[in-house]
Amino acid sequence: MNDSYLNFVNSPLGARVARSLGLPKPEVLRRYRADAPEFDGIVAVGAGPSPQLLDALADVVAHIGMTSVAHPGAGLWVPLANRHGLMTGRFEPAAPAGGSQARVRALVFDASGIDSSAQLDSLYTFFHDALRSLDQSGRIIVLGRPPESRATPRAWTAQRALEGVTRSLGKEARRGIAANLIYVAQGAESAVEATLRFFLSPRSAYVSGQTVRIGTAPATLPADFDWTQPLAGQRAVVTGAARGIGAAIANVLAAQGAHVIGIDIPSATAALDAAMRQIGGTALAFDIAAPETPAQIAAALDELGVDVFVHNAGITKDKTIAKMSAAAWRDVIDINLSAQERIDDALLEAGTLRNGGRIVCVSSISGIAGNLGQTNYAASKAGVIGRVQSMAPFLAQRGITINAVAPGFIETQMTAKMPLALREAGRRMNSMSQGGQPADVAQAIAWLAHPGSAGVTGQLVRVCGQSLIGA
Amino acid sequence: MNDSYLNFVNSPLGARVARSLGLPKPEVLRRYRADAPEFDGIVAVGAGPSPQLLDALADVVAHIGMTSVAHPGAGLWVPLANRHGLMTGRFEPAAPAGGSQARVRALVFDASGIDSSAQLDSLYTFFHDALRSLDQSGRIIVLGRPPESRATPRAWTAQRALEGVTRSLGKEARRGIAANLIYVAQGAESAVEATLRFFLSPRSAYVSGQTVRIGTAPATLPADFDWTQPLAGQRAVVTGAARGIGAAIANVLAAQGAHVIGIDIPSATAALDAAMRQIGGTALAFDIAAPETPAQIAAALDELGVDVFVHNAGITKDKTIAKMSAAAWRDVIDINLSAQERIDDALLEAGTLRNGGRIVCVSSISGIAGNLGQTNYAASKAGVIGRVQSMAPFLAQRGITINAVAPGFIETQMTAKMPLALREAGRRMNSMSQGGQPADVAQAIAWLAHPGSAGVTGQLVRVCGQSLIGA
């Protein structure tokens, strides 16, 4: 739970030692705090030819009260910003040494109009000029159109190329800067706000190198909600809520206004009760793997219904396959994957999960890349990705979204018990040079659970600080 | 080009030193050699419920002259094998210590009938029993159905879970063992042979952790060809053929019977001429980035036409974006990406690339994951992925396939110049604990160029020894 190296190199003495020895100096990430403004400072805006998303962007920047500057390549920004009542000015590049220039909190580039590989040079010009102006824990957001929606192979190709740029920027920016790519479908411009807010906010501190698609979901995007309490009046279930990441999820959903129903195994009742008491939630003791549990959960929740269901509960029973017991295989698959399937079936059949609701599942980078000693766990977590992809079209008829988050190295009691060398490798092998916090996973889940995230479904988002480990 | 650590730990003294210090001991990979049998030894066959691909598998195993054993869970194999005239027997697990038991060359599991997460336990049983019997440089192949083709979310989920199992097996098997997953579409059973041969062969030594899809392409699967010289009578163009990976591609395509036309820049004419002379190929000096080149290439090739076009030429000009020159950005995008687009347009418009032909592009793991100092290169290589995805449906009308390979750390003159620490990290951070050879990339390209690979299109296959680095 405690990254002593991170603390050390951020102390006055440690910073000197690290500098003189050339050691990595992970940044203390700027994270969301209820007692600090979520949004402040300047967004620097860039754009390629024929940008199509500046209007939607200006709307959001105005709503959240940030100011902006326009790179010379984004000349269209100025009249738009004025129309949206947004304070704006001209971009002035930082001096090569950094230093005295006013720094910006976010670089946002509208690449939506790029339809050939040659036009990618507009990204070069913007990030070449602007990257040094970006603050610590700053944000890089590239906006594009889903490649497969483009009319020509060349436009598809150019939009697909954005991934390479964004991920490289995430790897070279350092200083706690996160870089992400958002593909906005034609017609989904009005559905971008919740996602843009998340990626501009300190809530997304440990989400980097990700590609997110926003589709059209006009039928289910609510007309209005309170941005400070977006889950007000909603009921959210979190499995495995007694401790660790599950408890963090419960906390964040409660902070956003939800009434949380925490589920955990009967042996964790005391911890679960305590966790739920803290947030005014409801504790339900269930073994999610028991065959009778899905019907019992549906019955327990039936009267009031559920708006958000977070499948977080999971276990590991690691062994190489030759040494793994049949029970270790079966239990991990059953608890991490099959139980989710049975519970969703019961809730959907009973109509307990309301139309327009949200399902969020916890996968893992092991489910993406596989892992030594985790054939069972990786199968279950890869299966979770399949669940999200397969259920999304089916649930869309009810306006329900289903998505997954895949945590990387997160500082928990579990990782605290890892051997030192493995733990250090896991912590440092990512663009943030540090592990994430349970709250980082929870904030990503809250974004996916948000009423404004109606256009996001069938997707997998890693919360891994852009971990090197992939597939 | 020379991995001295690999050589050292595989010497008698080095092996003792490595053992006593607990150092990793990368295996000397078994690679294809013209003077050794490509296929020999035993395939151990396993299956889940209702396997649908055993018939196709038996056909291939019989053709290549391997023998087989059936795991108790694959009882259907025995009568099938008999029908295909295949020598077969019962599987006997190796003793826990390994040792005296006859070892097998490949473990092949037919998971095509698995339609629920609980049925995944059949994979556990087979690999639990069989993994210790697998030889050094052995092969693990899991056969499934494309998840998105399944009728129910649960079947989709279970098929998707196979990726987690296969990738974990690749990471824990060590000893030079490669593990891959092949999804065979319904109706594409007759199109599996070229792909199964590749993944069973020492040709795929450095391809691990990959997922390949075989679709239906009956119209373009040739009735017959010579498996030892599948490209006999064909003309194959390779760009950047003077040296390195390009020269290796030219060699392998020539060894498979193709007449190779090597293209490289005029300044490399001497090297190109020498490389082409060795294989009886034709040398063409062109700067592929010059605007007039596409038409000139089309004109030069027009009379006889082309069957295979390999876009291999590429450059790097690495710098972090703030320090990168506009020319470094432009040149890398233009040579690595835009030039490919212009050349394909010219060849397709002129009909120079024959119907039923093959395009293979060289991408990179940088294009997948991004890389520090390579915003330009990663953009170009991510764009190549977009090219393959976007062109595939369009080219299918002509029976042309387009695919990409993404090399990981390959031992070349370029990597020999890297700083030691970076080079060692690149070499060891994969399941083979070593870099690949240019021939490994070339063999993967030859598989995609194969007339029998008509069902493989729009895909990206990494040649990276299951590098940790992903996206």
UniProtKB/TrEMBL annotation, chains A, B:
**One Pfam family, short name:** adh_short_C2
The keyword Transcription regulation belongs to this UniProt entry's keyword annotation: no
Q: What class of enzyme is it?
A: oxidoreductase
Please indicate which superkingdom the organism of origin belongs to. Bacteria
The family assignment reads: Belongs to the short-chain dehydrogenases/reductases (SDR) family.
Which InterPro entries does the record cross-reference, listed alphabetically?
NAD(P)-bd_dom_sf, SDR_fam
Q: Which GO terms describe its molecular function?
A: 3-oxoacyl-[acyl-carrier-protein] reductase (NADPH) activity
Q: What is the lineage of its organism?
A: Bacteria, Pseudomonadati, Pseudomonadota, Betaproteobacteria, Burkholderiales
Q: What is its EC number?
A: 1.1.1.100
Task: Please give the name of this protein.
Answer: 3-oxoacyl-ACP reductase
Keywords, alphabetical: Oxidoreductase
Question: Gene3D superfamilies under this entry?
Answer: NAD(P)-binding Rossmann-like Domain (3.40.50.720)
Q: Which source organism does the UniProt entry give?
A: Paraburkholderia azotifigens
Q: Does the keyword Oxidoreductase apply?
A: yes
Query: What SUPFAM superfamilies does this protein map onto?
Result: NAD(P)-binding Rossmann-fold domains
